[in-house]
Design a protein that fits this description.
Layout: H1 2-25, E1 31-39, E2 43-46, E3 66-76, E4 89-99, E5 115-123, E6 132-137, E7 156-169, E8 174-186
Parallel strand pairs: 2-8
Antiparallel strand pairs: 1-3, 3-6, 4-5, 4-7, 7-8
């Protein structure tokens, strides 16, 4: 009988830990972040540069970063507790890292370099925040390998950008969320 009770107890613990999954492990905040949208998907990034308006010329093209629009919301990890203003989450930075499906992922050779960006957006507890823009492709990346080599040809590189948003709730608990989008680089 004791063995049976221990097995039932062990099974309950295992099922509880499996059902919580990533939600419980997503930082120490009582809230978790949800990416409601990360657009455009896919993003077509023109590596050729823009040749107008002045002072851009064909000899010295101007390059522009490519941005994405993000909408985040929060939800409570414990649905029995009503969120308060202490559970508002302020996003303060993000990280973008590129990978390729073929496994060729050397930064500066196969994919652009990863980078961090700054942003300040507050997401209300239990609600959606405002849409905001983040840089998905930096201007300088279009002037470095491997993107610079795509300017004169017809080749393209398809990457997956992993975007991680970091923030804090009002009591100082860390919180983050990860999203992905496809970026196609080429001379479009």
């Amino acid at each position: 009988m004791r063995t049976r009770i221990r097995l039932i107890g062990l099974a309950a613990i295992v099922s509880a830990s499996v059902s919580c999954g990533d939600v419980v492990r997503q930082g120490s905040s009582p809230m978790y972040l949800v990416i409601d949208s990360l657009t455009p998907a896919p993003l077509r990034s023109n590596v050729r540069g823009v040749t107008s308006p002045d002072p851009c010329t064909p000899q010295t093209p101007c390059f522009a970063s490519d941005n994405g629009t993000v909408e985040l919301s929060t939800a409570s990890k414990d649905f029995s507790l009503a969120p308060t203003s202490n559970n508002d989450v302020t996003i303060n930075r993000y990280h973008v890292e590129y990978t390729r499906a073929d496994g060729r992922n050397t930064q500066g050779v196969d994919v652009p370099y990863a980078f961090d960006g700054a942003v300040t957006v507050t997401i209300p507890a239990g609600g959606s925040g405002p849409k905001f823009e983040v840089t998905l492709v930096r201007t300088v990346a279009k002037q470095e390998a491997p993107l610079a080599t795509l300017r004169t040809g017809t080749n393209t590189i398809t990457t997956f950008a992993t975007v991680t948003f970091y923030g804090l709730d009002r009591t100082g608990n860390a919180i983050s969320v990860v999203g992905r989008t496809q970026i196609d680089f080429g001379n479009f």
